[in-house]
Queue: 2 jobs
Job 1
Amino acid sequence: MINYLKKIIDFICYIFKFILSPPFCLYCRSYLYDYTVLCQGCSNLIKPILSIKLKNPDIDVYAISDYKDPIKPLILAKTYSDRTASISLAYLIWRYTILSKLEFDYLVPVPLHFIRESIRGYNQAEVIAKELAFLSGKTMLKCIKRIKKTKLQSRLSSVERQDNVKNVFQALDLKNIDIEGKTFVLVDDLITTGATLKNCAKALSKFKPKKIYGIVGCRVCS
Ligand SMILES: [Zn+2]
């Protein structure tokens, strides 16, 4: 009886949601019949991309696609503080990458400096990681922090990017959390040279990780 009532309430909520906020494809804006992010035509535009292995420390990095449409606008949306675009990106990561097949313990968002986070209103990596935690049933753990403000990586050359993020991440002292020897998934929206993920992974080495993965929306291919 309770289950039956719950189904009726869920259905009524769905109808209200459908009327108040009808679903549209986030790329071409065509009407959708359910709450998927992209229509079938735009989904077909996604070109899967091979994983890469970063060295020292070793990280296998998975992305949905190259930094191109239809995923690119979801990443650029952070410049005008569109939090829902980051949530949609998480759904696409879950659907189009290998993450749902990986064995891991914690999702760790790449931290933003607190000044940049307060200007934007949120950390896009954290929004993505939180949604992925919901989808996977795993825990998001904010166990590293950014200890100094850096220049935007997108404005720097490849060599400058390496120096820009060197030694800027630090592992937090976490008590009462079973964290040593675990498998971590570093989460970010975009990877270019991999310098940020590598420096985050160096900070994670304090916890003697069994394995570190990286999961991102797009990978910029040179
Ligand atoms: Zn579309």
Job 2
Amino acid sequence: MKFEMLDKKMRVFEQNMDQLVLPGLYIIARLDGRGFTKLTKERLDLERPFDLRFRDAMIETTKHLMDAGFKITYGYTGSDEISLLFDKNENSFGRKARKLVSILAGEASARFTQALGTLGVFDCRIIPLPNDDLVVDYFRWRCEDASRNALNAWCYWKLREKGLSASEATKQLEGRSVAEKNEMLFQVGINYNDLPAWQKRGVGLFYTDMETTSVNPMDNREITVSRKQLTVEMELPRSTEYDILIKKRLTEQTP
Ligand SMILES: Nc1nc2c(ncn2[C@@H]2O[C@H](COP(=O)(O)OP(=O)(O)OP(=O)(O)O)[C@@H](O)[C@H]2O)c(=O)[nH]1
Ligand SMILES: [Mg+2]
């Protein structure tokens, strides 16, 4: 068979699973550490429930993804997950889902492994969203999920410290309301409201304009130039203020 014919014949199979994210839809990618319960509990010696070295490795991984050749206007990380909002006009690889997913998962796994010195692998999914409100809801959802997980994780580890086994601690928390969990923490001297914002709401990464002065080489006059700088926000605002922060990212230009 001639190469051209063989090529044509095989490409049909190769392209069978290809899917494009339709133009006009927002692209969000969410990456999640694979089997990180084992990694954080058995393979690494981490602070519980939250560890600074782990958090910083996740932030470095998010920064790396935002600098991996795509136009990403917002990065969000909490626990072992990362969400990325693409510029609405992103057209890399013709918006092929398999390209986005495989590149992001590969880049994240490589950077995280480098940061912590142990094998850390990420999965990745693409979430196409049709309008601004759903993008805001998406990030509200991840943020609220982080809050629930933080409350749960603090309660869980306090029970473990008291000597309860993993299954006993899990059972004790089953069916408990948010108020009950808050009270439980209060009894051991922890006010949930006073915990660091990055634990309760995650960390946001986005571009802000920074003004710097420079000298125009043509006439040696001082000029002010504005350039984009990546900001790592450890204290994400709550409710409507967070919505505003996300809405701003929808029209943001990447550098
Ligand atoms: N000790 C510690 N554990 C953390 C920290 N951040 C995340 N984790 C743990 O990371 C795990 C993430 O959980 P999941 O993503 O739900 O579960 P997983 O084991 O990764 O499973 P899959 O995602 O389905 O592969 C949880 O067990 C968290 O307790 C941290 O800062 N310190
Ligand atoms: Mg995971």
